[in-house]
Design a protein that fits this description.
heterodimer, A: mainly alpha, 2 domains, two-stranded antiparallel sheet, 65% helix, B: mainly alpha, 8 helices, 64% helix, 0% strand, disordered N terminus
Chain lengths: 199, 192
């Protein structure tokens, strides 16, 4: 076990900010490459015309999941040192639905809007201004919202523990789900869509 | 020949949404882009012991900006206060703030290489620019509140938590898709 490097003290906080910037560059590069700097491309997945965004997202999840699982197995990565956001299932249902509606209405999500801003999309600027307004509203109303924000607390919990299934089996299940999703995406596009390859 | 292919494609698009008018080079193959994104995420896990994020940077920036106007209120606010830290470091010397600055830089490099820069309000043919800007703001507001409740967004929860098999992240992600697919019907005139 020698990674995560930062947690093992290979470098300090100042260096971690340089690392953050470099990782962000990689993140932003692939987001834009994939077409995530375009709101119409992003929302076309919700109209079943073009599910490229869905494909990118689930390929990324599967790639990182397989990497983490493999590196954990061979003893290179200590998974217990990788930060997990604690689960608050009630708050996360509320938050997920709100963010999803905001995604369809606004055309972006927080991570993709910077890619659209630098490509000159003015709607991404008002979208980001909206996020600031939303967080400000949330903070103002926090005394009223605290109850809902902390509802459904379960701590940091992973699917395998929750489902009482072996870790590897859940990983295998997610891979199968993704493959089924990719096959289904192709089928759906043939029915509803414009072939993305033709564009 | 090329025109014929194009015509067929356009006819097929027909009654459904017209393809988004893309500027510049074609986008990368989605599976390749996904592998690239996944490897960036994996490198964050291996190097830092944490995943990617976006909305957290907005919380830090907002806390810092408001502390210039109403320092006592921010410090006393249960949600934003923690983003100011203990005062030993600047609130913007934050991992996610630097990572998001990287997103801007990386996207700019990719987009310029592909010739995709174009100042515009991205929208369908049946909506005015000002209406689209207003809807983008409204959607952003809902996103901000949603990300606060969800303790993250599509980056920090769906992508990062999804690959760590985090229960809350999967609940969040399923609800994002449920909310988006439902709402999409009502705002379809915005895009097509």
């Amino acid at each position: 076990m020698t990674t995560p490097f930062y947690k093992y003290g290979f470098f300090g906080d100042e260096t971690s900010l340089v690392v953050a910037f470099l990782i962000g560059i990689g993140f932003g590069f692939f987001l834009e490459r994939a077409g995530f700097g375009s709101s119409r491309k992003l929302v076309s997945q919700f109209y079943l015309n073009d599910l490229a965004v869905f494909r990118v997202m689930f390929t990324a999840i599967v790639t990182a999941m397989l990497g983490v699982t493999y590196l954990g197995w061979i003893g290179v990565l200590d998974l217990t040192l990788v930060y997990m956001v604690p689960t608050f299932w009630v708050a996360q249902i509320v938050g997920g639905v709100l963010l999803g509606v905001g995604f369809a209405v606004g055309g972006y999500c927080p991570g993709t809007s910077p890619a659209a801003v630098v490509m000159g999309h003015l709607d991404a600027i008002t979208y980001i201004a909206g996020i600031f307004a939303g967080v400000f509203t949330f903070a103002l109303a926090f005394p009223l919202l605290r109850g809902l924000y902390t509802a459904g607390e379960m701590g940091a919990v992973r699917l395998p523990e929750f489902l009482h299934l072996p870790y590897g089996l859940v990983v295998f299940g997610v891979v199968l789900m993704a493959l089924a999703g990719f096959w289904g995406a192709g089928w759906v596009e043939k029915r509803f869509g414009t072939a993305p390859e033709a564009r | 020949m090329a025109t014929a292919v194009q015509e067929i494609t356009e006819t097929r698009a027909g009654a459904h949404a017209a393809a988004a008018e893309r500027v510049g080079a074609p986008y990368m193959n989605p599976y390749l882009a996904g592998i690239g994104l996944g490897l960036v995420l994996l490198s964050a896990f291996v190097v830092m012991g944490r995943g990617l994020g976006a909305s957290g940077a907005i919380n830090s920036t907002l806390a810092w900006a408001l502390s210039k106007v109403a320092p006592a209120w921010v410090a006393g606010n249960e949600f934003l206060g923690p983003y100011l830290g203990d005062g030993s470091t600047h609130p913007l010397k934050d991992w996610l703030v630097f990572e998001v600055m990287g997103i801007y830089a990386g996207a700019l490099v990719s987009g310029l290489l592909a010739g995709r820069f174009k100042v515009m309000v991205e929208r369908g043919p049946r909506i005015s620019a000002s209406a689209r800007l207003g809807l983008a703001f409204a959607g952003g507001t809902m996103t901000g509140i949603g990300a606060a409740f969800g303790r993250g967004c599509t980056s920090g929860q769906a992508l990062t938590g999804g690959s760590l098999l985090n229960l809350g992240s999967w609940i969040f992600m399923i609800c994002v898709f449920a909310g988006a697919y439902t709402a999409a019907y009502f705002v379809r005139r915005q895009w097509r």
